[in-house]
């Protein structure tokens, strides 16, 4: 009952947005994070694998018969949502999120684990990935809980993290000098580095400006090294202590990363990602800009990108290469706090 009010509110807001703008606001996805429901993934895969539409009725009533078509459909759903990997099998840190355990059931985890551990060699050929994925799914469906109908956050593959980092490098106009450091695997503590990390966490959907780090999402994101410490009260307490205490969010994120989160899960994943992104960014600069376009915009060593973009670079022009550059760039020292807005 408690949940009906906010939901009604959200639906109402969505309806208002739709009637005012003619747009479906549910399609207006923030940042670059992936969210999808189990049902949506199932429908995707029915399209990819050309499973006839009439079969959806069975699946929608949680009836997943033991036939080759259904088995491979579930493998596809698992790959789609990243709870399945043909080499390493079921990814429980992702899969668990799609099921809601019965509150009265104290043994859902043990019984699911038991089901998964049952010797698969007997019933299923180990080279039959569809069969194995299907079997694992059935264990969760039978023993873990009810499928959650909502769209949920699920992990990206690393190439998308690199893309998100590269996007942030562009948005924040990270100076080449720093990119060279990152590319060499060194991450100097500069305001740019702090804000780049903040942008990266925002863009990948694991940090929100209003509510801070989303540790549930971080846990899911690092599904290959599930780390319960993400979910501990101690971690939350440390994050809460940093939250808002510093006045600027770039520094908050940086310290949270350096002192609390960086070592968890896939430890210091971000540095590897930033290194790869910086290399790509530098490579693009070298390849695409052999001549003149950047000369108008000298290296920005003192940067304040709000002012930079709003005032000095208000007259950005589009170079023939398609790259935006600034006719004039401001060089002025600004106090640390001025970097943030
Ligand atoms: C499956 O896991 C292996 C080993 O960790 C990894 O190399 C591979 O990229 C994964 N495949 C997918 C599709 O994620
Ligand atoms: C689940 O299994 C673990 C170890 O196998 C055991 O210690 C624990 O008591 C079990 N929990 C329940 C609720 O049976
Ligand atoms: C396992 O497989 C063997 C041979 O395929 C069969 O004889 C046996 O009954 C099976 N055991 C179970 C528990 O299904
Ligand atoms: C540089 O900063 C100083 C003090 O912050 C300010 O007085 C001055 O106007 C600034 N110069 C430019 C070009 O913005």
UniProtKB/TrEMBL annotation:
PROSITE patterns to which the protein is assigned, alphabetical: PROKAR_LIPOPROTEIN
Signal peptide span: 1-25
Family classification: Belongs to the PBP/GOBP family.
Keywords attached to this entry: Disulfide bond, Secreted, Signal
Superkingdom assignment: Eukaryota
Gene3D superfamilies reported for this sequence: Pheromone/general odorant binding protein domain
Compartments, as annotated in UniProt: Secreted
GO cellular component, one term: extracellular space
The organism of origin for this protein: Anopheles culicifacies
GO molecular function terms noted in the UniProt entry: odorant binding
Lineage of the species this protein comes from: Eukaryota, Metazoa, Ecdysozoa, Arthropoda, Hexapoda
SUPFAM superfamilies (alphabetical): Insect pheromone/odorant-binding proteins
Single GO BP term: sensory perception of smell
InterPro entries: PBP/GOBP, PBP_GOBP_sf
SMART domains per UniProt: PhBP
Name of this protein: Uncharacterized protein
Record's keyword annotation contains DNA damage: no
